[in-house]
Amino acid sequence: MDYFLTEEQQMIVDVARQITEEKIIPVRAELDEKEEFPSAIIKAIAQADLAGIYIAEEYGGYGGGSFDICLALEQFARGCVGIATSFAANALGAYPLIISGSEELKRKYLPAIASGEKMAAFALTEPNAGSDASGIQTTAVLDGDHWVLNGTKQWITNGGEANIYSVIAITDRAKGPRGASMFVVEDADPGFSYGQKEKKLGIRASSTRELIFNDCRIPKDRMIGRPGSGFITVMKTLDKSRPGIAILGVGLAQAALDEAVVYAKQRVQFGKPIIAFQAVQHLLADMAIQTEAARCLVYQAAKHIDAHPEDMSKASSMCKVFATDVAMKVTVDAVQVLGGYGYMRDYPVEKMMRDAKILQIYEGTNQIQRNVVGQALNKEYTA
Ligand code: COS
């Protein structure tokens, strides 16, 4: 379908597509197998001037929004969701600074992220705080001119690879969610170290690691926003970022559909290519319809978010649920179309199916997203 992209938007798609075809697709199976971080590809994305798509021009970025980054992420995800996740998580780590950071912090960190010189990560999740985001235990205590952080963050994407970490910690436990604040922690800060690197089902090219804060001392001015504003910054960050996860689902579903159609045209059984059988055609038709419907919803939600930053939650959660559920279904069906071959590592669809599952889990499970949509409906309607 024609989405009537501007010349600039089409350029983002074309450049991202070229990186995907030339740099991502040739190495994706190997990086997945070796669980290796895609440093060279992240560098290539920066060299193509795409690292700062979503960062304002005054901080060295391209000045785009959620829609623009979605256009690039969709193409990267057609190649590899693990690699695309590394890029998406970089933006997730930068959003708290963009949303709530002081002018000084923005000037200090955003240009380096926009140029690709530095990479960011977002640290919310803890062993006992996942869906219940306000249940975090990590603390930050003021000691003279420094904050002292203690605690452990878990499953942090880009952990160990990023240089700049947006971290939420409790500064006043008595105030509940209003007692959490956000900070920038740099990789070289004293008392900050990395724990174990996780071994995952899918997105194995991305790094997922523990962060350990053991009397980690950071200068006082590294707080993002006001004391107590951390939970709201986190919620707004996730609202802004979730279309980026949704679009990974769209790119992935499209890639799985492409593989399935090509295979169905080549594979001959009972004397005909299997695409001639209605059973296969209907499967492919549903995959195509669902993928296009997901694309429409994500594009529109991202545009809505860019135009209405005060009203992001429902659109963001809706598109995240829909597109990632579609990605799961379409990748499972692609494996089905390829049959025994689809189950083998010789074809890319088994990896696509493994990669799809995390999309329904990270940046808020699809059950949490349905809660957000349900609560929005409850507020919007009167009995
Ligand atoms: N934007 C702005 N403010 C928000 C918000 C949003 N999207 N969502 C919640 N808030 C505010 C609420 O208005 C409330 O403010 P008050 O203290 O003034 O009442 C405060 O934040 C707490 O909200 P709530 O009571 O709804 O929080 P809960 O503890 O019940 O948490 C949600 C519910 C859905 C917000 C939370 O469980 C959630 O998002 N979980 C998923 C977290 C996640 O994505 N984890 C994975 C991280 S991987 S990167």
Description:
The protein is of the alpha+beta class. The protein has three domains: 7-119, Orthogonal Bundle (Butyryl-Coa Dehydrogenase, subunit A, domain 1), CATH 1.10.540.10; 121-228, Butyryl-CoA Dehydrogenase, subunit A, domain 2, CATH 2.40.110; 231-380, Butyryl-CoA Dehydrogenase, subunit A, domain 3. It has eleven helices and ten strands. It has helices at 7-24, 28-34, 39-47, 66-79, 81-100, 103-115, 230-266, 278-307, 313-343, 349-359, 366-380, and strands spanning 120-123, 139-143, 146-157, 164-170, 180-186, 192-197, 208-219, 223-224, 268-269, 272-273. The strands form three sheets. The chain has a four-stranded mixed β-sheet. A hairpin with a 2-residue loop joins β2 (139-143) and β3. α4 (66-79) packs antiparallel against α5, α5 (81-100) packs antiparallel against α6 and α5 (81-100) packs antiparallel against α7 (230-266). The model has no long low-confidence stretch (mean pLDDT 97). It binds coenzyme a persulfide.
